[in-house]
Amino acid sequence: EAEAYSVYVSGTDVYASGYESNGTNYIAKVWKNGVATNLTDGTADAQAYSVFVSGSDVYVAGYEFNGTNLVAKVWKNGVAVTLGSGATYSEAYSVVVSGTDVYITGYENNGTNDVAKLWKNGIATSLTDGTVAASALAVYVHNNDVYVAGNEGNFAKFWKNGVATSLTNGVNSSTARAIFVR
After folding, report:
1. Which of 15, 30, 32, 113, by CA, is between 20 and 30 Å from 51?
2. Which long-range contacts (CB under 8 A, 24 or more apart) does 131-134 make?
3. Where are the alpha helices (DSSP H) in 8-101?
């Protein structure tokens, strides 16, 4: 069993990120032109949700299980950087690079609810207050403005530079999963 979540094209190279099962656990992977590279060793579940290429650097966002919780991570050229504390669940869903800044979105649980997070160069900012479950599923940078898509409770939302805008009325559960600005 294998699944790819994200595709990125850089020149003539095609990158995809996802996972492949080793029969026991999921191994986070990135494929370049169909050739797989393992990001994890398969001793614990891990998945790679998003891939972004900047120059010769390949960034992948996802999670790895630490024995107790899923932990948000970003891999740069195969080297993992832990984003979540590991004390509670966290996942990284999207990564984008703008200049020298690396932006990653996801969530980290506060013990009660998932809190939508934006990590810039590894430093977390909460987009929500944690009173209801929320998640940040996509990030895009345009003209130095940072746009994030996700949800807070039943509301699909986007954030521009941390300021939220509801896209729905909250009557039904909804989520924004992608964002692009032109």
Report:
1. 113
2. 134/107
3. none
- Residue type, position 90, single letter: S
66: nearest Cα among 84, 48, 92, 39:
84
What is the number of alpha carbons within 13 Å of residue 79 lying toward its C-beta?
3
CA–CA separation, 137 and 91 (whole Å): 10
The pLDDT of residue 175 is 96
pLDDT of res. 83: 98
User: 12-17: long-range contacts at Cβ-Cβ below 8 A with a sequence spacing of 24 or more?
Assistant: 13/53, 15/51, 15/53, 15/58, 16/51, 17/48, 17/49, 17/50, 17/51, 17/60, 17/62
Q: What is the pLDDT of residue 51?
A: 98
Angle at 17 between CA 69 and CA 3, to 5 degrees: 80
Question: What's the average pLDDT block by block, 10 residues per block, for the chain (182 residues)?
Answer: 96 98 97 98 98 98 97 98 96 98 98 98 97 98 97 98 97 96 92
Measured CA to CA in angstroms, residue 171 lies from 53, 110, 182 at distances of 38, 25, 30
Residues in the chain: 182
